[in-house]
Amino acid sequence: EVQLVESGGGLVQxxxxxxxxxAASGSTFSNYWMTWVRQAPGKGLEWxxxxxxxxxxKYYVDSVKGRFTISRDNAKNxxxxxxxxxxxxxxxxxxxxGGEYASGNFDHWGQGILVTVSS
Amino acid sequence: SYELTQPPxxxxxxxxxxxxxxxxxxxPKQYAYWxxxxxxxxxxxxxxxxxxxxSGIPERFSGSSSGTAVTLTISGVQAEDEADYYCQSxxxxxxxxxxxxxxxxxxx
Lengths: 119, 108
Prior knowledge:
The structure holds two protein chains of two kinds. Helices cover 0% and strands 55% of the residues of chain A. Chain A has no helices and eleven strands. Chain A has strands at 3-7, 10-12, 18-25, 33-39, 45-51, 58-60, 68-73, 78-83, 92-101, 104-109, 113-117. In chain A, strands 2, 4, 5, 6, 9, 10 and 11 form a seven-stranded mixed β-sheet that branches. A four-stranded antiparallel β-sheet of chain A has the order 1-3-8-7, with no helix packed on it. Chain B contains no helices and nine strands. Chain B has strands at 9-12, 18-23, 33-37, 44-47, 61-66, 69-74, 83-90, 97-99, 103-107. In chain B, the strands form two sheets. In chain B, strands 1, 3, 4, 7, 8 and 9 form a six-stranded mixed β-sheet that branches. In chain B, strands 2-6-5 form a three-stranded antiparallel β-sheet, with no helix packed on it. In chain B, strand 3 and strand 4 (44-47) form a beta hairpin. Classes of the chains: A mainly beta, B mainly beta. Chain A binds chain B through residues 35, 37, 44-47, 50, 59, 61-62, 95, 97, 101-107, 109-112, and chain B through 1, 30-33, 35, 37, 41-45, 48-49, 54, 84, 86, 88-90, 94-102.
C-alpha cells in the first residue's frame, strides 16, 4: 500500500509558474505509473498527465501540452508537475494518483492540493 | 478528443438498485474503471477492469460491460453510497486517459 501526499500548491498570478510535488511512502513507488488529475471547483475530474515507472514515457492532455511537465525521481519516491503560463482556468484541486497501467487502475490517491490562479 | 458519457444524476430509494452507465467508442478495446468521490474527499476506485472489485469494496458494487457501454450497479443502495461516481478509461491507443463527466447519485 502506497501513501501519497501532494505539496507545492497555493496562490499564483496569471502567467506565473508553480511546481507541485507528490511524495510517496509505504510501498515501492517505482512499481507504479503515476498520474496527475485535477478538479476545478464544482466540476468533474480531468486527467492531466502520466509517467511510466522508469520515466521513459510521458503523456499529456492537449490542454496542458507545452505548459505542464511531469517528471519523477524514484530515488526520492517523488513525482512532480511543473506548471508554467498558468491561467485562471487552471484553478483547481490537483491530485496525484498511482496505478498499474498507463490507462487506469488508479488505486492510490493523494488528498489533493489546491492551486488558485488569480491576480 | 475522446469522450466518455455519463448521466449527470441518478436517484434511488434506499434498498433499491442503482445503475450508472458510461458510453464511449473505445470501451470495447479499453478497460473501464469506476471511482466514487464524496464531498471534500479524494476519489476511491470501486471497480477496475470493467468488473473487478478491489479488496475492501462492498459486494453490492458491481460492474459490467457490453459493447460501447459499461455499467456500475449498486444493489441495495445505502445512504452512505450517496456520492459522485466517475467512469474512467482511455482512448484506443491507451495513452490518453479520460474521465466521464460524473454522475451524482442521490439516495432519496
